[in-house]
Amino acid sequence: MKALQFSKTGDLSALQLVDVPTPVPAAGEVLVQIKAAGLNPSDVKNVLGRFSYTTLPRIPGRDFAGVVIEGPQALLGQEVWGTGKELGFTGDGSHAQYLTLPASGVVIKPTHLSFAQAASLGVPFTTAWDALERSLVKADTRLLVIGANGAVGSAALALAKIRGARVLGAVRRAEQVKALEDKGIAAIQLDKPEDLAASVNQVFPGGADVIFDTTGFWLPAAVPALAPFGRIAIIAAPADGHVQLPALALYRKGGSVVGINSLLYGTEACARMLDQFGRFFDEGLLELPTGLLESPLSEGLARYAEVDQGGSDKVILLP
Fold this sequence. Notes:
Elements: E1 2-6, E2 15-19, E3 29-39, H1 41-47, E4 64-70, E5 79-82, E6 98-102, E7 107-108, H2 115-119, H3 122-134, E8 142-146, H4 151-162, E9 166-171, H5 174-182, E10 186-189, H6 196-203, E11 208-213, H7 219-222, E12 226-234, H8 247-252, E13 256-259, H9 267-282, E14 292-296, H10 300-308, E15 314-318
Parallel strand pairs: 8-9, 8-11, 9-10, 11-12, 12-13, 14-15
Antiparallel strand pairs: 1-2, 3-4, 3-6, 3-15, 4-5, 5-7
Protein name: Quinone oxidoreductase
GO molecular function, one term: oxidoreductase activity
InterPro entries: ADH-like_C (IPR013149), ADH-like_N (IPR013154), ER (IPR020843), GroES-like_sf (IPR011032), Lipid_raft_assoc_Zn_ADH (IPR052585), NAD(P)-bd_dom_sf (IPR036291)
């Protein structure tokens, strides 16, 4: 089969389009014919050597949608989707024509989603879902999402609205504020960190119950914007990994910080998440993804380079 593969890390030039044997599923596994595979920034970072536990040689790729062609009878011929921490790191991933994984690591794809649309959602939506679950977002929770225009941020807003939360998006540019407001979402424009609390209090008097910072740069500023006993969820940090936390203000508010890392969840745990929110697409509660850049797997090297350079398109590789 055709696959993207790297045998060393540190430079994207290590990634090559190769011919490798089609994998054979073990007992309890499925063989999935990949119809579409998402390309996430973490896939690029993996080739660049940012994850010490990656074993080599390796086929990258976390998110996928496809058809089961070998495995338990109940799954044969079924259209499925999935994601998980093993894929592309300690086991071969989805940037190939075929993929093996545990049968319990796939779930039936929502019928309203195309293969490409389903493959675009795994990492962003499981990350957002985990953030909402672990920071206890429910009906009437006042939720601020910083970086609300990004893939994870927009997923968090959409999923939180279904839960009945009161949502507020924070973005950098005025046109991004307008885009959110046009969708019926309250929004504020990020400016100086010291001004964040005042902006939030104009919408949520007393502060937000939960603040989800998807950018990694607003943790210190989020503490004054937090309501008593509030939670701050984070999925990123500055390049050096360090930030000055106003601990006195945080504990006086009874606040807490929740770290969110999608790479803590294997394919089986992710399948359970996908099954929980996937039905919302078929029920019309979640918008179908648009604006995807679909690209042949043979052009994957160029797509990796574009994502590494900060390209904003959501890339879907088509084997």
